[in-house]
Amino acid sequence: xxFETKKExxxxxxxxxxxxxxxxGMEMKLWxxxxxxxxxxxxxxxxxxFLCFNDECPMYKEGWDNIQxxxxxxxxxxxxxxxxxxxxxxIPVFSKVxxxxxxxxxEAVLQQEMLKESIKKGFSILADxxxxxxxxxxxxxxxxxxxxxxxxxxxxxxxxxxxxxxxIDPIRNLKFPNEPIQKKVDEAISKIHERFFTxxxxxxxxxxxxxxxxxxxxxxxxxxx
Length: 225
Hints:
Layout: H1 6-14, E1 29-32, E2 48-51, H2 58-71, E3 76-81, E4 88-93, H3 106-132, H4 135-143, H5 149-162, H6 168-172, H7 179-196, E5 198-200, E6 207-209
Antiparallel strand pairs: 1-2, 2-3, 3-4, 5-6
């Protein structure tokens, strides 16, 4: 049985046309379900729903009086729709702004799409660099803070596979704010040293042969150190 990730579900929903509220005819907004049990306590069943946030919607406008008269609570209803279906239901809201914090607006969706395209482009460039052994270009992408984290993480991994000794200095003393990237960079430096049978002098940190007894840079005894 194949299970979809939350990201895969979102991508599928974004590719579909948004439903319109059957009560007012307005296009409904994509809404991320909060991590709070609802109804029977079993949860919502889906990570996203479509909600009508039109304050002039008849269901919403009339809901205030309906709930007050029947239940004595200050609340109303908003129409919901399950993605990919024509299943319309309603959920209670207790203020005008209730639920608005989970709206996935068009700008956020656009940013997600732009990020996805940047990652796709970055991976494509890295693949070409790997084939051509162009570690310099890979190094530039790793050091570029404007590149997506996933691209920089992949670049760090590749540096360990194809990087020359000259790649070590630019990244050795640079602290990356992203912990997984920093870890990959540290691993990459170790892999480069393994491939070239080198290490760093414990006194001056310059690169020397793994079996060296005297550092050629600071002339210190490094045998066994």
